[in-house]
TrEMBL record, chain A:
Protein name: Putative ABC transport system ATP-binding protein
InterPro entries associated with the record: AAA+_ATPase (IPR003593), ABC_transporter-like_ATP-bd (IPR003439), ABC_transpr_LolD-like (IPR015854), MacB-like_ATP-bd (IPR017911), P-loop_NTPase (IPR027417), Sigma_54_int_dom_ATP-bd_1 (IPR025662)
Cellular compartments per GO CC: plasma membrane
Single Gene Ontology MF annotation: ATP hydrolysis activity
ABC transporter domain residues: 8-233
The UniProt record lists the keyword Transferase: no
Keyword terms of this UniProt record: ATP-binding, Nucleotide-binding, Transport
PROSITE patterns assigned: ABC_TRANSPORTER_2, SIGMA54_INTERACT_1
Pfam family, one: ABC_tran
Organism lineage string: Bacteria, Pseudomonadati, Pseudomonadota, Alphaproteobacteria, Rhodobacterales
From TrEMBL, chain B:
Coiled coil is among the record's keywords: no
Bilayer topology term: Multi-pass membrane protein
Residues in ABC3 transporter permease C-terminal domain copies: 289-407
A matching Pfam family: FtsX
Annotated organism of origin: Pontivivens marinum
Keywords, alphabetical: Cell membrane, Membrane, Transmembrane, Transmembrane helix
Ranges of residues in domain MacB-like periplasmic core: 19-205
Protein name: Putative ABC transport system permease protein
Compartments, as annotated in UniProt: Cell membrane
Chain ranges passing through the membrane: 12-34, 286-308, 329-362, 382-401
One cellular-component annotation, GO: plasma membrane
Domain of life (superkingdom): Bacteria
Keyword field contains Isomerase: no
Length: 233, 416
């Protein structure tokens, strides 16, 4: 771990889904350093999605502290949290990442619409989107194509370009490779890491696939960092 | 860019969106069409009679006098004596005067006795004169000119014989004095279309052998004897009057209303038409209300479409949310979409209206005598369009608020 301030810090965070007393999540401590690539392994139902929602600020913890890039996100208003998420976090989902009716270019540029800071990092949006596409191994004419016409592997790369544009400090990927075959998985991660290292971006990837472990700086297990709380406490 | 995405999303759902827009367009076209017909009907109604300054009859109500003298609805309670008629005709304010004698019928159509001056003086649709489509005006005592509807309904040609019945819906006919169709008028869209016009003398002629509403038994004067008789009427039903100067209308009206020999009534046709329209107008308001309901239905249909699209679009909304869009952006997107749909629908509806007018105008004119002018949308119509668009936006708030709550609850994760 480096000595710079952590990009993500979770301290004694407790969360319970509203209206459901039987399931909650307790994260005693989770810290991510800048430029780290971390794989978080966990079975489905272990609370991965809840954890990611807490980090992204679409849900807020009942107690404890979640800070991203030094900001306590609980201290922000709902609107500020949405803006903060747009500025600080690039997101990649398992699949269906893109708006199928929009062009690849519009999909890549979408987060900049809600993040003025990230927008400032990009001098020429079109050129930057094209560069990312090129660096992620997408064909040159992909920019104007409809996102819905691409293959799943290409769609995930477009999603990666969208997460990377404007260099947010943290990229969160939720099983981005599970819909890809093994060879494409490796290439995808290589390309993603190549871009994130170039800008010192932290990558937190969630997966249930332990075979990917070797490509990451650090591997965490959901069971080690968080406790799924069952029954009323 | 957000606009482009909203547009792209609409295009992606082209079929349902297209249907919704079509429904809105049709309802808007219907609403504007009804509005057009309404104003057209009102204008046509007001144009039923023009160029006539006063209508004179026996004293009754002004609407009643208008109804029987112009619209041939109902009956005169009393007649106007020939002496009174001549007194009025002799006044110096009077430029022209045309007598009208009603009371008999042919089949379901009224028979009107008048002079040939009627064809010059009676004007409709701001100054248009009656025109003869076939044949000529009455030449002989037993000649008749019939309206366009009479000719088409009864299939009459020039030269066909007509037997006039005494009174209305009566079985006693003036069978011994048959008339001959000498002329058929052009369609006017006025009650003239439904009138059988004969000369004033002919009305007298067919009643020569009649006393007190019944034929004198056994008496039947031959036509050539009748032709020798003095057929000056004793009384008429009403008279149309034109004055020399419009300034004299009110003075003449007052003096006729105060005519000492006989209780008379003179009315200004325009004013009486307005009074009558106030009664007839209730139906048009009801029609307008019904078509407004159709617009409301179309908008509710749009609301339903948006509602049903919400589930399939949860992922789209989750993507927006994950990219940092606030829930209110989602709300805005949906309202924007609905407003776009309503706007396209409204404009398309206007287009449909003009297309319909363009195609239907001549047909409506010849079938109903209703002239619908094709002109630039009125301010009122533009307000209607704006209202539809605004209502679309307001209606879409209901599903948009639901999407707002959904996207708050779902966040960026989608559970489908």
């Amino acid at each position: 771990m480096t000595d710079t301030a952590p990009i993500l810090h979770m301290d004694d965070v407790r969360y319970r889904w509203p209206g459901r007393t039987s399931f909650g999540l307790h994260v005693p401590n989770l810290t991510l350093a800048p430029a780290e690539t971390v794989l978080l392994l966990g079975e489905s139902g272990s609370g991965k999605s809840t954890l990611l929602s807490l980090i992204c600020g679409t849900i807020t913890a009942q107690s404890g502290r979640v800070s991203v890039a030094g900001t306590d996100i609980a201290a922000l208003s709902a609107g500020q949290r949405d803006r903060f998420r747009a500025e600080q976090i690039g997101l990649i989902f398992q699949q269906f990442n893109l708006l199928p009716f929009a062009s690849v270019q519009d999909n890549i540029l979408l987060p900049l619409q809600f993040a003025p800071e990230r927008r400032r990092h990009v001098a020429d949006r079109r050129a930057e989107a094209a560069r990312l596409c090129h660096d992620l191994g997408l064909p040159d004419d992909v920019m104007s194509a409809g996102a819905g016409t691409l293959s799943v592997g290409q769609q995930q790369r477009v999603a990666a370009a969208r997460a990377l544009i404007g260099t947010p400090p943290l990229i969160i990927a939720d099983e981005p490779t599970s819909s890809l075959d093994a060879a494409t998985q490796a290439t995808f991660l290589e390309l993603l890491f190549g871009q994130s290292r170039a800008h010192g971006t932290t990558v937190l990837m969630v997966s249930h696939d332990a075979r990917l472990s070797s490509q990451f700086d650090r591997v965490l297990h959901m069971t080690d960092i968080a406790k799924a709380v069952r029954g009323a406490t | 860019m957000i606009l482009r995405l909203a547009y792209g999303s609409l295009i992606a759902r082209a079929l349902t969106v297209g249907m919704t827009i079509l429904a809105i367009a049709l309802s808007v076209a219907l609403f504007l069409g009804v509005e057009k017909v309404r104003t057209g009907a009102k204008a046509s109604f007001a144009d039923t009679i023009s160029g006539t300054d006063l209508i004179v009859g026996a004293r009754s109500g002004s609407v009643q006098l208008l109804l029987y003298s112009v619209f041939r609805i109902g009956n005169a309670t009393n007649n106007l004596t020939w002496e009174s008629y001549q007194d009025i005709a002799a006044r110096r304010e009077v430029d022209w005067i045309v007598p009208i004698s009603l009371g008999d019928s042919h089949r379901q159509f009224r028979v009107m006795g008048t002079t040939t001056e009627f064809f010059d003086r009676y004007k409709y649709r701001s100054g248009q004169s009656l025109a003869v489509r076939d044949g000529v005006l009455m030449d002989d005592l037993f000649d008749t000119v019939i309206g366009a509807d009479v000719a088409t309904t009864l299939g009459y040609q020039i030269g066909d014989p007509i037997v006039v019945a005494h009174g209305l819906a009566s079985f006693s006919e003036h069978a011994d004095q048959p008339f001959r169709v000498s002329g058929i008028l052009e369609k006017t869209g006025t009650p003239v279309d439904r009138t059988v016009i004969v000369s004033l003398e002919a009305i007298e002629a067919i009643h020569v052998d009649w006393r007190g509403g019944a034929q004198i038994p056994g008496q039947s004067t031959p036509a050539d004897v009748i032709r020798q008789m003095d057929l000056q009427p004793q009384a008429i039903t009403a008279a149309l009057v034109g004055v020399n100067s419009r300034l004299q209308v009110f003075g003449l009206q007052r003096s006729i209303n105060e005519y000492p020999e006989e209780p008379l009534l003179a009315i200004l046709p325009g004013v009486a038409l307005q009074e009558l329209w106030r009664i007839v107008g209730i139906a048009e308001t009801a029609l307008l209300a019904v078509s407004a309901m159709v617009v409301v239905t179309a908008l509710i249909g749009m609301m339903a479409t948006i509602f049903s699209s919400l589930n399939e679009r949860r992922r789209e909304m989750a993507i927006f949310r994950a990219m940092g869009a606030r829930p209110r952006v989602i709300l805005g997107l949906l309202v924007l979409e609905a407003t776009l749909m309503a706007a396209i629908g409204a404009v398309l509806g206007l287009g449909l209206l003009y297309l319909g007018l363009f195609i239907g105008q001549p047909m409506i004119d010849s079938a109903f005598g209703l002239w619908l002018p094709i002109e630039a949308p009125t301010l009122r119509e533009l307000w209607v369009l704006l209202g539809v668009i605004g209502a679309g936006a307001i209606v879409s708030l209901v599903p948009a608020l639901r999407a707002y709550r959904m996207s708050l609850a779902d966040g960026m994760t989608v559970r489908i």
